[in-house]
Amino acid sequence: MRKTDKGLNEAKVKRISKLKNEPKWMTDFRVKAYREFVSQKMPKFGPEIDLNFDNITYYKSMTDKISKKWEDVPENIRNTFDKLGIPDAEKKYLAGVGAQYESGVVYHNMIQELVDKNIIFCDTDTALREHPEIFKKYFNKLVKYDENKFTALNGAVWSGGTFIYVPPHTHIDRPLQSYFRINSANMGQFERTLIIVDDDSSLHYMEGCTAPTYSDDALHAAVVEIYVGKGSKCRYTTIQNWSSDVYNLVTKRAIVEENGLMEWIDGNIGSKVNMKYPACILNGEYAEGRCISIAVASKGQIQDAGAKMIHLAPHTKSSIISKSIAANGGNATYRGTARITENATDSFASVKCDTIIVDAKSKSDTIPTNIVSNTSSYLTHEATVSKLDQDKLFYLESRGLSEDKAKELLIMGFIDRFREELPMEYAVELNALLKNYF
After folding, report:
1. What does the alpha-carbon distance between residue 332 and residue 334 come to, in Å, rounded to a whole number?
2. How far is 189 from 269, CA to CA, in rounded Å?
3. Mapped to the 3 state alphabet, what secondary structure does the chain carry?
4. Residue 211 to residue 182: CA distance in whole angstroms
5. What distance in Å separates the CA atoms of residue 160 and residue 163, rounded to the nearest whole number?
6. Is the pLDDT reported for residue 45 higher than 80?
7. pTM to 2 decimals?
8. pLDDT for 86-126, tens place per residue?
9. For the chain, what are the domain ranges?
10. Using an 8 Å Cβ cutoff, are 172 and 205 in contact?
């Protein structure tokens, strides 16, 4: 069976689990999550979410197998991803690539070096089948299914996503990468990503997200759980370019142990409504969390994005750098939390939010929650909201640049701190995406 019809009920949730040949505990988990989804109300904060859940397709598999050779992927899917440059990107610099189309992973490849290092890199459905012990140990432990309506929905109908396990004392020189594509109207995509970077190890993971534009709304409600061991480092880079009819409602969270480091490099360019706040729970002494993000809102878009840093242990450190751009009537809002708890003595948190409003039709808000609960720690918060510098615009135009080109140069300079953190291929892609907005 390649797809279920629109709408969701308990029988369909069980059918998805049966199609995937899952163990009973996962079927039971899905049913429990579905019942929670039905009982939960919409989030009370942030922008309005006007979704007709009965008009969404919750599972649609385009192929019955995962191809290890790009030539074996069905031609219609291959043509779509060829336009995104997956084969070229893999040849250039990637250690491994996974590609998800609608509800299922259609392509996955991994170089021998990762196999030799006993690194597990596969889609999440395969991890459930082939690595059940480690999967069950970490699944749903960091992001609980009953946290909100959309974590419950993900728990009920999750499909695909990325699973990575990096053993202790293991380092990967090149990034691993996945692509996620919604290609149908009214489609829902609910991948589940689970990453474990064991003690004294490192990982850089990158993902890209795209969708064509339709007249009806689509939904992307993913869950990401990351475990960073003692002395380990994980960097998670995202550039999402969902189309302007996609609700992007994602929960991303990492827990960081002693001397560990978690870095979120988070780019939000597309979607109709985006609500995403990557989080770090600093659980061990000297753990550190960083988030550098951009959010670009143009006509008809609401970017409600930011980050969360929760300090639980002494001597922990966090920083949030948020760059927002609102243009053509868009709304770019920072919403974030920096919380230093009573036990997190001698800790430091820094929050810096900068926004450019390109025209009089656009808007931006900064909604921070900053809490320090002990006397030996401190937190700094800085926020600026400004328009494009007219003097600089005049100067650039006087040097022969058009107004649009001058605006582009100023905006590219504004997000330099973010672009510096991207591999060259992603920085070039980001530049191309932003040119369509101004």
Report:
1. 7
2. 18
3. CCECCECCCHHHHHHHHHHCCCCHHHHHHHHHHHHHHHHCCCCCCCCCCCCCHHHCECCECCCCCCECCHHHCCHHHHHHHHCCCHHHHHHHHCCEEEEEECCEEEEEEECHHHHHCCCEEEEHHHHHHHCHHHHHHHCCCCCCCCCCHHHHHHHHHCCCCEEEEECCCCECCCCEEEEEECCCCCEEECCEEEEEECCCCEEEEEEEEECCCCCCCEEECCEEEEEECCCCEEEEEEEEECCCCEEEEEEEEEEECCCCEEEEEEEECCCCEEEECCEEEECCCCCEEEEEEEEEECCCCEEEECCEEEECCCCCEEEEEEEEEECCCCEEEEEEEEEECCCCCCCEEEEEEEEEECCCCCEEEEEEEEEECCCCCEEEEEEEEEECCHHHHHHHHHCCCCHHHHHHHHHHHHCHHHHCCCCHHHHHHHHHHHHCCC
4. 5
5. 9
6. yes
7. 0.86
8. 445 443 444 444 444 444 444 445 556 777 889 998 889 88
9. 10-276, 390-438
10. no
Evaluate whether 361 touches 374 at the Cβ level (below 8 Å). no
Q: Residue type for 260, please?
A: G
Write the pLDDT tens digit of every residue in 203-219: 999 886 543 443 356 88
